[in-house]
C-alpha cells in the first residue's frame, strides 16, 4: 500500500515551493529565481536557488536538488513517506492511498503518545497547589502557563493514564516517558513541553519543585526518534516569526528565562536545552536571523563560554553580541525589574564578542598592570576571535578599536592577526585533507617536506629546481602549503598537523639534510611516477589509442628514461 500517484502530483502542485522553503531560509529574488544561503552546507555567499515555476530547488555548492518533498526529507530528516505525511498535514491536504487503510509509523505513534502525555500533565497542574504556587511565585502568569502549555508530573501516574488510553508500553518507553518500562521518568516536576517548529510536542523538560539531593534540577527527555537536544532550541516555535522579522535572536539558558522574557514582551528569544551550542543550533538560527545576543557571567568560566559559543556561531556567519548585564542580574531578573524597554536598550549597547573580551581584560583583569607575557596572551585570545570574522573590513575596524582600547600599536595587532589567520587557514586545509583520507608519502617526499619546513630560506631555490617534477607526486598539496608558510608558523601549528606530516617533521634527524641529494631523489621519484603513468595509459587504452598516440607516448617514455639516468 502506498500513496496514490494522483495524490503525490496534487500535493506537489498545491504547495508553493517558495513559501515552503521561505520558512527555512531567507530567500531573495535573483531574476526569475530566488536565492539563499544553502541550508544543507556552510557557505557565506548564496548558491542555493529556488525556481517557483518548475517547483524545484538546486544548490550549486553541494549539488542538493529536488522538489518540495525531497526538500522536506532533507531538512526535517524524514524518509519519503514521512515527508509526504508532513506536508499533507501542514497544508491540510487529505492523503489518498492506492488502497484503503493506513499504517501508522513508529514516529506517528510517538507523536501521539507525547501529545496525550502533555494533556495528562496539564490536567495535573492544578490538582496540587504546590506547582502552581511555584510558578506564580516566580512571576509566571496564568496566561503564560496556558500559552506555553505548562503542566505538572506527579509522583507517578502517566503510565497508567496512557495505557488506559490504549498506548503500548513499548511506545511509551520509546517516547522517553518511562524508565525501564515501569517507572515515570518525570516525577514531581513542572513540565515544559518542547515543540518542534510545527508545534508538535517532541519531548519535555522538567524542573524540580522541591530541592532533592539525588535528582537534577532540570531533566530533559532522552534522545528519541523525534527528540534530539543538539538540534532543538526551546521556544523557537513561538518566537520564530518575531526573530525573522527583527533579524536577531536572544539565546537564554533555560525555560524559565524564556518564559519570563516572552511574558514581558521580549519575543525574539529561544533557549538551549542545557547543552553547549552545536553547529546544528547555529544552522538552525541562521535560518531565521543573522544576529545572536548572548549573556555571559563576567568571570573566567563566562569568558570561556563566550569564546566557545562565538566560534561555533561565527563559523556559520552569524554576528554574535554579548549583553552587558549589571552585576548579579540575568536576563530573567533584569526584565522583571526594569521591563522590556530597558532590555532593548541593553541590546543596543551590546558589544560583539571581540570587544566584549577586550573590555573584560581591561576592566576585570586590569590589563595594564599585567606582565608583558600575560598581556600578549590576552591579546592573542582576543585576536583569535577577530580572526573568526569572515570580513576584512570588520576585522580592520575591530583591530583599530582594540588597539586604541588597549593602547597598543595597531600594526602590531595586524601582523599578529595575520599570523593567526594563516594558521587557521592552514588548519582548515589540513582538516579537509584529513577528511579525504590519510595521505601516504614516500620516504623521499618526507625528507623534502621536512627540509622545507626547517629551511625556509631555501624555498625559492627548491621551487625553481622542482618545477615540472613535484606536481606529479602525492605530497604536492602539502608542498604547496608549506611553501606559503613561514617556518615560525610551522612551530605554531606543529601539534595540529596530521599524523603523517607530524611524523615527517619530527623525524628531522633521521633524514638526510643534503639538499642536492633530496632534489635528485625527488626528481627521480617523479620521473618513475611519470613513466608508470605512461605504462598505465598504454595498457588501459591499448585498443582506443591511435598508432600516432602510442608512438608519442613511447617517445615520451624513452626521453624520461634518458633524463632519469642523467640525474
Ligand atoms: Zn548546498
Automatic annotation (TrEMBL):
It catalyses: ssDNA + n NTP = ssDNA/pppN(pN)n-1 hybrid + (n-1) diphosphate. CDD domains: TOPRIM_DnaG_primases (cd03364). Binds 1 zinc ion per monomer. Gene3D superfamilies: 3.40.1360.10, DNA primase, catalytic core, N-terminal domain, Zinc finger, CHC2-type domain. Residues 247-326 form the Toprim domain. One of its GO terms (biological process) is DNA replication, synthesis of primer. It comes from the Bacteria. Keywords: DNA replication, DNA-binding, DNA-directed RNA polymerase, Magnesium, Metal-binding, Nucleotidyltransferase, Primosome, Transcription, Transferase, Zinc, Zinc-finger. InterPro entries: DNA_primase_core_N_sf (IPR037068), DNA_primase_DnaG (IPR006295), DNA_primase_Znf_CHC2 (IPR036977), DnaG_bac (IPR030846), DNAG_N (IPR013264), DnaG_primase (IPR050219), TOPRIM_DnaG_bac (IPR034151), TOPRIM_dom (IPR006171). The keyword Transferase applies. One of its GO terms (molecular function) is DNA-directed RNA polymerase activity. HAMAP family: DNA_primase_DnaG. Monomer. Interacts with DnaB. NCBIfam families: dnaG. Contains an N-terminal zinc-binding domain, a central core domain that contains the primase activity, and a C-terminal DnaB-binding domain. RNA polymerase that catalyzes the synthesis of short RNA molecules used as primers for DNA polymerase during DNA replication. This is DNA primase. It comes from Thermotomaculum hydrothermale. The lineage of its organism: Bacteria, Pseudomonadati, Acidobacteriota, Holophagae, Thermotomaculales. The gene is dnaG.
Amino acid at each position: 500500500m502506498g500513496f496514490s500517484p494522483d495524490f503525490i502530483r496534487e500535493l506537489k502542485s498545491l504547495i508553493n515551493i517558495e513559501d515552503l522553503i521561505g520558512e527555512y531560509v531567507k530567500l531573495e529574488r535573483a531574476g526569475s529565481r530566488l536565492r539563499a544561503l544553502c541550508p544543507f552546507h556552510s557557505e557565506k555567499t548564496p548558491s542555493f536557488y529556488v525556481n517557483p515555476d518548475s517547483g524545484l530547488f538546486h544548490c550549486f555548492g553541494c549539488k542538493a536538488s529536488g522538489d518540495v518533498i525531497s526538500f522536506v526529507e532533507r531538512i526535517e530528516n524524514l524518509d519519503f513517506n514521512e515527508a509526504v505525511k508532513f506536508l499533507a498535514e501542514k497544508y491540510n491536504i487529505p492523503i489518498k492511498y492506492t488502497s484503503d487503510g493506513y499504517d501508522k509509523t513508529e514516529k506517528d505513534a510517538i507523536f501521539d503518545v507525547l501529545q496525550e502525555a502533555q494533556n495528562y500533565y496539564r490536567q495535573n497542574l492544578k490538582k496540587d497547589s504546590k506547582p502552581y504556587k511555584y510558578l506564580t511565585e516566580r512571576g509566571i502568569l496564568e496566561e503564560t502557563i496556558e500559552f506555553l502549555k505548562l503542566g505538572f508530573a506527579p509522583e507517578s501516574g502517566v503510565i497508567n493514564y496512557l495505557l488506559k488510553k490504549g498506548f503500548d508500553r513499548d511506545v511509551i518507553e520509546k517516547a522517553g516517558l518511562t524508565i525501564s518500562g515501569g517507572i515515570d521518568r518525570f516525577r514531581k516536576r513542572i513540565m515544559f513541553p518542547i515543540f518542534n517548529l510545527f508545534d508538535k510536542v517532541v519531548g519535555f523538560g522538567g524542573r524540580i519543585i522541591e530541592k532533592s539531593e539525588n535528582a537534577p534540577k532540570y531533566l530533559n527527555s532522552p534522545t528519541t526518534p523525534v527528540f534530539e537536544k543538539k538540534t532543538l532550541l526551546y521556544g523557537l516555535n513561538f518566537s520564530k516569526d518575531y526573530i525573522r522579522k527583527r533579524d536577531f535572536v536572544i539565546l537564554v539558558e533555560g525555560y524559565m528565562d524564556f518564559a519570563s522574557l516572552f511574558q514581558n514582551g521580549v519575543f525574539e528569544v529561544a533557549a538551549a536545552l542545557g547543552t553547549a551550542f552545536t553547529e546544528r543550533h547555529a544552522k538552525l538560527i541562521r535560518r531565521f536571523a543573522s544576529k545572536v545576543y548572548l549573556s555571559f557571567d563576567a568571570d573566567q568560566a563566562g569568558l570561556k563560554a563566550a569564546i566557545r559559543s562565538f566560534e561555533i556561531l561565527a563559523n556559520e556567519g552569524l554576528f554574535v553580541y554579548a549583553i552587558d548585564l549589571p552585576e548579579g542580574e540575568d536576563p530573567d531578573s533584569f526584565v522583571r525589574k526594569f521591563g522590556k524597554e530597558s532590555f532593548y536598550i541593553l541590546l543596543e549597547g551590546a558589544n560583539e564578542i571581540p570587544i566584549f573580551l577586550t573590555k573584560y581584560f581591561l576592566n576585570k583583569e586590569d590589563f595594564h598592570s599585567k606582565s608583558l607575557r600575560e598581556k600578549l596572551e590576552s591579546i592573542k585570545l582576543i585576536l583569535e576571535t577577530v580572526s573568526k570574522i569572515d570580513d576584512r573590513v570588520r576585522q580592520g575596524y575591530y583591530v583599530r578599536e582594540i588597539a586604541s582600547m588597549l593602547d597598543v600599536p595597531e600594526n602590531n595587532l595586524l601582523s599578529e592577526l595575520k599570523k593567526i589567520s594563516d594558521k587557521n587557514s592552514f588548519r582548515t586545509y589540513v582538516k579537509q585533507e584529513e577528511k579525504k583520507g590519510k595521505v601516504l608519502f614516500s620516504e623521499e617526499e618526507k625528507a623534502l617536506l621536512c627540509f622545507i619546513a626547517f629551511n625556509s630560506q631555501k624555498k625559492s631555490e627548491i621551487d625553481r629546481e622542482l618545477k615540472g617534477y613535484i606536481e606529479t607526486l602525492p605530497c604536492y598539496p602539502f608542498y604547496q602549503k608549506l611553501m606559503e608558510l613561514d617556518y615560525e608558523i610551522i612551530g605554531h601549528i606543529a601539534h595540529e598537523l596530521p599524523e603523517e606530516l607530524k611524523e615527517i617533521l619530527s623525524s628531522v634527524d633521521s633524514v638526510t639534510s643534503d639538499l642536492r641529494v633530496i632534489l635528485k631523489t625527488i626528481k627521480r621519484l617523479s620521473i618513475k611516477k611519470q613513466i608508470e603513468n605512461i605504462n598505465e595509459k598504454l595498457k588501459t587504452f591499448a585498443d582506443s589509442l591511435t598508432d600516432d598516440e602510442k608512438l608519442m607516448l613511447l617517445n615520451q617514455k624513452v626521453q624520461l628514461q634518458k633524463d632519469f639516468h642523467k640525474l
